[in-house]
Each structure stands twice: as structure tokens, then as C-alpha cells.
């Protein structure tokens, strides 16, 4: 398509920066291209500008905002940020190649704590009495739970305020403050002069203090603005002697087992306010994490107040902490392990709000589009063997014990062939059995059917079954299901609620080109290629810290 026929393409292009805000459609050489994906939404776009048509190089600056509009409706079809324009020379003169990316989810990186149960994050303080200890392992009280034990040796002389004391600083190191703190405890003796005590800082406020007893104590959560002063970001736990000079005795009873220690940061709501103190608990939901991201580190780029945040299955997240650094995109990818039915989509900004829209949405279980194989070009792609009827998840308890949880499912074709394929995943640090079960269920569901790995090219208007109207190729959205009419008919094809690898697939990528006014839809997975094979062989040279 030449520049003179660009007006025939139903997309208009606008650029906005601090130096220029105007339309570029008349300067475009060839066709525009844009790509959207699941997960992620807006991904990338590109076009070429021709200076022979009057384009000035100062119109497009690094990080300018670019919009693709539907000429008929004015609706934004794509929006992104200019990366670094590249100059070239064509047959007719100088050209400017413009690459547009949507990478705002990777703009920030750093430590982030949501909820942390890692007992190994607690360290002895310099004020700890020499000879005392802090160790992780099975509860000395015999509960079978993991515990962090603070102990004095037997026959040990103690003076007033002798203590075994540990400190937690991850929330402070991440630049956050405490939102919730809880723990249970057990003890080897009953003596009111021995205290199990927690203190928050920097205000040095006693959050909780109880006399030692062999009956122990269950959890009693402390929240910001209550027992924890708003703004405190440090926490200490003590097993401390408060009476006069004495001795621990000849038996090993001077110990306290700290159980189910939970440190939760004060979280933002999606509109930039704080999550209310009364809504904290010993777990978080994916919606809490998404809201915190939108309300804080993504607030400059995304319209959090108007973001769609679906609840999904409301799974209870018991540990999600990144002391070694993370990006928002990595956090969202991890959340899909807890909520496998959900995805995240970056979309266009709202009028008057110069921020991207955002959706954390539950994937629809209803077919939205239909493709006709006798009209639309369809390729089956190369299908790798990606079905698994067994999955094993390795995870580590808060005390550092490594465990493996295994789950299975029945796949008739594999059973008939007498074949078992196991998928292994490493959940990393400080998950629990419920996390492993959830992750296993996600893997088995995603690998129940063979992925299509095919591609359909749509170069015509097709019906959007959600709205009942005809949509152009560039309007087709990823993350929704499409029915392939005319391919391997199956009895349940008309009532499918999930991809089946044949007639019903999920759109994971859309690649539109105005050169032929067509969109390539990748089904279930991006088609296998030599490029992907090479990328798949690349491994990290150092272990990556897992989030859960």
C-alpha cells in the first residue's frame, strides 16, 4: 500500500507530546501495524513516516504518545509510547520508522512486600543476650507446625531484660510500612516474668505482650492505626526476662516457639487511597495486590480509579514477597498462578485522563467470535506435545523445609496409550500445601487439551457475539474465545466454556496490518517457530527468587 492510498485504511494516527499534538495519517508511508496479546493487552505498533509528504522530524519525539483511531467511530484502537524512532532512506527520500511499545508495566522495579511468612527473614539483633538463639524448625511444643524458636540455654544466669530478640526489616527495606502483623506462640514454661513481646518501630510501641505459659496463645492480629502506629515499618519479637537475677534451671524449658508469623505491608487501594484497616486478615486476595499496584507504583501510568478488577476465585494468598526485586508485570504473571482464570489487559486511556486503562479480568467462558474456515485463512500450526496428566510442585515451608506435592488427572487418550507425562514446577520459597494444590490445578487445567498453536487470518468484518454488531479486523480483542466453524466438529462445540484445542480456542495474540487490512489471530498459544525455539533454550545463569 502506498502513501497515496493510506486514506483507504480506516485508521487515523495521532501523536501527542510536549512539542506537537496532531494527526500523522497524511504522512504515513505504507500501512500501520499493531499487536495485542493475552496477557498484556496493547503490545506494540509500527508505522513509517515520509518527509516528502511534509512530515517534520520534530513532530515525533522519544516517548511521545501515539493513538490509532477508528475513522468511522473515533474509538481508540491502539495506544502506546514511541520508543526510539529510526531514520532510513527509501527510494523516494528520507523516512522515519516509528516503533511504538506499551511497556509501562516494566517501568518500575524494586523490592515489594505484600504478605510475608518467611521465618528466615528474621535476624538476631545486636541487643540479643549472648548465648541465646533463634532457629527455625518443628515447633518444640509438638504441634507439628514450622516455628521460629527463641531460646535460652539451661543453667543460664539471667538478669533483668536479658532477651532473645529478632528483627524483621523487609518492609522497611522496600520503602513500605506495616499494615498487619500476627503470630501465635507456644512456650516451655509458665512464668509471668518471661514475656513474649512484639514491638514496632521506629516508635518503639509494644504491639503485644503476654506472659509465658505452656498453654501458649493463638493469633491476635495487629493492624495499622490500631496496635501498630500508622507509619511504623520495623518489627521486633522478644522472649525476655523481666524480673531480677535468676537462672533458667537444669531442663530445656526456657524457650518460645513463634508460629504462623505474618507480616503484611500497608496496601493501597486502586484509587490511591489506603486499604481500610478493618479489611486486613492473615491472607490477601489477588484484588488486593492489583489494587496496591494501581494505587501506588503504577499510579502515574494507569487510571486505577476506573480500572476493572475482577475477583476471580478469591483464592487466599498466604505469601507474596519480593525482597530481591521485581517488576509489576512479574507480579501480575505470578498472580495468574493463584487465579488461573484471570488475565490482565492494558487498554486505551479515557478522554481527559492521560493514563492507560487497565483490566484484571476473569476470562470469559462464552465464545465471542466465529471464524469460517471456507472464508478465513486458517493454518493448523505445529502442535507440540503439551498435555500432562501428572504435575509435581516443589515448595519450601516458612522454616525452609523443601517439600513436593503431586496431583494427577485423567486424559483418556493418554490412558489408552498407557502414557504418563509429568510437569514439574518450582514454587520457590515459602509456599504451603494449598498454594501447591492451586498451582497444580492450574497446570492440569491448562494442559488438559492440546493447545491449538494455529493461526487464523481475518480480513473481513465478523460478528461480535457479545455486542451483536460487525467488527473490523483491528477491533478483535485477545483473551476471548473464538469458534472455528468447519473444523473437526464436536458435540460440545456450540456450548463450550473453555478451549478444547480444536473447534474452540482462545485468542492469545492479534497482529493487525493495514497493508492488507487483515489480522492474524494466534490461537491458544503463539505458533512454534525457530525464533521461539532459540528463545526457549535461554536459561538464567543464576537462580531467580520465586514469589511464592
Count of alpha/pi helices = 6
| CATH architecture field of the largest domain | Sandwich
CATH class of the largest domain: Mainly Beta
The beta-strand count equals 36
The helix-and-strand class reads: mainly beta
Could you name the CATH topology of the largest domain? Jelly Rolls
Q: Termini, distance in Å?
A: 50 Å
Radius of gyration of CA atoms, rounded to a whole number? 29 Å
Largest sheet: 17 strands, mixed
Helix content: under 10%
Into how many domains do the coordinates divide?
5
Average of per-residue pLDDT values = 87
Poorly predicted segments: 1-6, 530-547
Residue share in β-strands? 35-45%
Identify the overall geometry: elongated
Describe this structure in words.
The chain is mainly beta. The protein has five domains: 3-34 and 44-102, Thrombin, subunit H (Beta Barrel); 111-265, Jelly Rolls; 271-362, no CATH class; 367-379 and 452-533, no CATH class; 390-450. It has six helices and 36 strands.
How would you summarize this macromolecular structure in one to three sentences?
The chain has 548 residues and is mostly beta strands.
Structural topology:
Layout: E1 11-16, E2 21-23, E3 33-37, E4 40-50, E5 65-70, E6 76-82, E7 86-90, E8 93-101, E9 110-116, E10 123-124, E11 133-138, E12 146-151, E13 157-158, E14 163-168, H1 170-173, E15 178-187, E16 191-201, E17 205-212, E18 222-223, E19 234-241, E20 246-247, E21 255-265, H2 286-295, E22 308-309, E23 320-326, H3 328-338, E24 342-347, E25 357-362, E26 367-372, E27 377-379, E28 390-396, E29 402-408, H4 412-417, E30 422-428, H5 433-446, E31 455-458, E32 462-464, E33 469-471, E34 481-485, E35 504-513, E36 518-523, H6 530-536
Helix pairs in contact: 2-3
Amino acid at each position: 500500500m502506498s502513501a497515496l492510498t493510506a486514506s483507504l485504511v480506516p485508521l487515523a494516527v495521532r501523536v501527542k507530546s510536549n512539542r506537537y499534538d496532531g494527526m500523522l495519517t497524511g504522512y504515513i508511508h505504507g500501512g500501520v501495524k499493531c499487536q495485542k496479546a493475552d496477557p498484556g493487552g496493547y503490545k506494540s505498533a509500527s508505522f513509517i513516516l515520509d518527509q516528502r509528504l511534509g512530515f517534520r522530524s520534530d513532530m515525533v519525539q522519544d516517548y511521545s504518545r501515539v493513538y490509532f483511531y477508528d475513522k468511522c467511530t473515533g474509538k481508540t484502537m491502539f495506544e502506546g509510547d514511541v520508543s526510539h524512532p529510526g531514520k532510513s532512506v527509501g527510494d523516494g527520500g528520507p523516512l522515519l520508522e516509528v516503533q511504538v511499545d506499551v511497556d509501562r508495566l516494566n517501568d518500575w522495579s524494586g523490592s515489594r512486600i505484600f504478605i510475608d511468612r518467611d521465618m528466615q527473614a528474621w535476624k538476631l539483633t545486636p541487643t540479643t543476650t549472648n548465648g541465646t538463639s533463634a532457629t527455625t524448625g518443628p515447633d518444640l511444643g509438638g504441634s507439628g507446625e514450622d516455628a521460629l524458636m527463641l531460646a535460652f540455654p539451661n543453667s543460664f544466669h539471667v538478669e533483668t531484660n536479658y532477651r532473645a530478640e529478632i528483627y524483621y526489616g523487609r518492609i522497611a527495606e522496600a520503602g513500605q510500612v506495616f499494615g498487619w502483623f500476627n503470630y501465635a506462640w507456644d512456650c516451655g514454661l509458665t512464668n509471668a516474668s518471661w514475656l513474649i513481646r512484639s514491638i514496632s518501630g521506629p516508635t518503639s510501641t509494644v504491639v503485644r505482650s503476654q506472659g509465658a505459659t505452656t498453654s501458649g496463645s493463638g493469633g491476635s492480629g495487629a493492624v495499622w492505626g490500631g496496635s501498630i502506629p500508622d507509619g511504623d515499618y520495623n518489627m521486633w519479637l522478644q522472649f525476655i526476662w523481666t524480673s531480677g537475677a535468676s537462672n533458667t534451671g537444669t531442663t530445656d524449658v526456657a524457650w518460645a516457639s513463634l508460629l504462623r508469623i505474618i507480616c503484611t505491608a500497608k496496601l493501597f487501594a486502586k484509587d490511591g487511597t489506603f486499604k481500610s484497616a478493618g479489611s486486613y486478615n492473615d491472607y490477601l486476595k489477588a484484588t488486593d495486590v492489583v489494587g496496591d499496584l494501581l494505587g501506588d507504583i503504577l499510579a502515574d501510568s494507569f487510571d486505577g480509579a476506573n480500572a476493572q478488577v475482577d475477583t476471580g476465585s478469591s483464592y487466599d494468598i498466604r505469601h507474596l514477597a519480593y525482597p530481591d526485586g521485581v517488576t509489576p508485570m512479574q507480579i501480575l504473571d505470578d498472580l495468574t498462578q493463584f487465579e488461573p482464570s484471570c488475565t490482565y489487559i492494558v487498554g486505551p486511556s479515557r478522554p481527559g485522563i492521560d493514563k492507560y486503562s487497565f483490566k484484571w479480568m476473569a476470562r470469559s467462558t462464552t465464545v465471542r467470535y466465529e471464524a469460517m474456515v471456507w472464508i478465513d485463512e486458517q493454518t493448523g500450526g505445529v502442535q507440540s506435545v503439551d498435555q500432562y496428566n501428572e504435575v509435581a510442585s516443589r515448595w519450601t515451608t516458612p522454616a525452609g523445609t523443601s517439600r513436593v506435592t503431586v496431583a494427577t488427572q485423567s486424559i483418556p487418550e493418554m490412558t489408552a496409550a498407557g502414557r504418563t507425562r509429568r510437569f514439574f514446577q518450582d514454587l520457590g520459597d515459602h509456599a504451603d500445601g494449598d498454594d501447591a494444590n492451586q498451582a497444580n490445578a492450574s497446570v492440569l487445567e491448562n494442559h488438559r487439551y492440546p493447545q491449538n498453536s494455529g493461526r487464523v487470518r481475518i480480513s473481513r468484518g465478523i460478528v461480535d457475539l457479545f455486542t451483536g454488531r460487525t467488527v473490523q479486523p483491528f477491533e478483535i480483542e485477545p483473551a476471548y474465545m473464538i469458534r472455528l466453524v468447519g473444523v473437526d466438529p464436536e458435540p460440545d462445540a456450540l456450548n463450550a466454556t473453555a478451549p478444547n484445542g480444536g473447534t474452540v480456542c482462545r485468542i492469545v495474540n492479534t497482529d493487525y496490518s493495514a497493508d492488507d487490512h487483515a489480522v492474524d489471530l494466534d490461537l491458544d498459544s503463539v505458533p512454534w517457530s525457530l525464533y521461539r525455539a532459540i528463545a526457549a533454550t535461554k536459561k538464567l545463569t543464576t537462580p531467580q527468587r520465586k514469589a511464592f
